[in-house]
Design a protein that fits this description.
By secondary structure, this protein is mostly beta strands. The chain is 2% helix and 40% strand. It is built from one helix and 28 strands. Strands 7, 10, 14, 15, 18 and 19 form a six-stranded mixed sheet that branches. Strands 12-9-16-11-13 form a five-stranded antiparallel sheet, with no helix packed on it. Strands 21, 23, 24, 25 and 27 form a five-stranded antiparallel sheet that branches. The protein is globular, with a radius of gyration of 24 Å. This is MOXD1 protein. Its cofactor is Cu(2+).
Length: 378
């Protein structure tokens, strides 16, 4: 049919009834339909001052979609049945221009046939030796390699730098992390050099930054910690997930590093049940940053991306930054945190953190649906 395309702004009430919004804030820019696809491109102000619209911020946005194979009739919309779904997005996260890395060398750090226990949560640790040695290179991108079908099983992957004094025997077997029988070598791996969490894509470093590998000061041995989530206690799962590191001999101006801030994993951090709102604060104090940066980085560090991480009770995370006792603009925040969608937020402008600054990580939780205390775990 050759009818002109149209689009309307509707909202729903608590009874899930759709109503046409008296203030039409969505504007059709483009429309196309063929035998398989209907495409609509539309625009909207971020803040419409309309109580029936949600403001669009840097927080996670849960987009809900549904469609019916027939156009909307005179009597209103047709029910979509099972043609519906949701997707978490960060609409304002600036796109990273993808630098083509097809020709660049890479290496994979992947688990080999790990038997995932039939229990709720498992942390599996495996040592690897960085294959690039004797000459400095920069890692420019890290991609998750999640075994097909295991997208919900692999919750997060951390890469730690270990002592360089280890020998290759540590590479021979993996082990459950934080276990009494865990190899002593694992205890030398304290510095996080990369983090990926569920729902996240690969991470591309900015064009002027890379993760240094290949020199004596760089990580020779790394520990990969994979957090498996198996709430249904499925037996017999075998996993081969991991990370791909893409690197280049063409060096960039700056080396990348990781600063971890927030609440330490401890039994002192607990959340009472039945709380609609409970806030915990992790303080990275003035004295701490003075000591950490004063000697090594007196000119400060430049933050270009932030990964906010919490678990199922997490509802919002805010990263506050103070300089000379005065609060700056939030470093990063997500007021609509989604446990199943955790990826790096690239900052629009790099932020300098100086010795003597302080950081406060504010974690907001809800335990309305819980009857027991909640203790944090990694």
């Amino acid at each position: 049919n050759n009818e002109p395309p149209f689009q309307q702004d509707y909202f729903t009430d608590e009874n899930r009834v759709l109503k046409r919004d008296p203030q039409q804030d969505y504007h059709l820019e483009y429309a196309m339909e063929n035998s398989t696809h209907t495409i609509l491109a539309f625009s909207r102000e971020l803040h419409t001052c309309d109580t029936n619209d949600k403001s669009i911020t840097e927080s996670t946005v849960r987009v809900i979609w549904a469609y019916h194979h027939k156009d909307m009739g005179e009597a209103g919309q047709n029910y979509h049945g099972s043609n519906r779904g949701t997707k978490s997005l960060r609409l304002l996260n600036p796109e990273k221009a993808e630098v083509l890395s097809a020709s660049l060398p890479y290496f994979d750090l992947t688990n080999k046939d790990v038997p995932v226990p039939d229990k709720d949560t498992t942390y599996w640790c495996q040592m690897f030796k960085i294959p690039v040695q004797h000459e400095k290179h920069h890692v420019t991108k890290v991609e998750p390699l999640i075994q097909k079908g295991h997208e919900n099983l692999v919750h997060h992957i951390l890469l730690y730098q270990c002592s360089s004094n280890l020998n290759d025997t540590v590479l021979e077997y993996g082990h459950e992390c934080y276990h009494p029988n865990m190899p002593d070598a694992f205890l030398t791996c304290e510095t996080v050099i990369f983090a990926w969490a569920i729902g996240g894509e690969g991470f591309t470093y900015p064009p002027h930054v890379g993760l240094s590998i290949g020199t004596a000061a760089d990580p020779q041995f790394v520990l990969m910690e994979v957090h498996y989530d198996n709430p249904s206690y499925t037996e017999g799962l075998i996993d081969n997930s991991g990370l791909r590191l893409i690197y280049t001999p063409v060096l960039r101006k700056y080396d990348a590093g990781v600063i971890e801030a927030g609440l330490w994993v401890s039994l002192f951090h607990n959340i009472p049940p039945g709380m609609p709102e409970f806030v915990s604060e992790g303080h990275c104090t003035l004295e701490c940053l003075q000591e950490a940066l004063g000697a090594e980085r007196p000119a400060g560090i430049h933050v270009f991306a932030v990964l906010l991480h919490a678990h199922l009770a997490g509802r919002a995370i805010r990263m506050r930054h103070f300089h000379n006792g005065e609060e700056q603009k939030l470093l990063a925040y997500d007021d609509e945190f989604d446990f199943n969608f955790q990826e790096f937020q690239y900052l629009k402008e790099e932020r300098t953190i100086l010795p003597g600054d302080n950081l406060i990580t504010e974690c907001h939780y809800s335990t309305v649906d819980r009857i027991r205390m909640t203790w944090v775990r990694k």
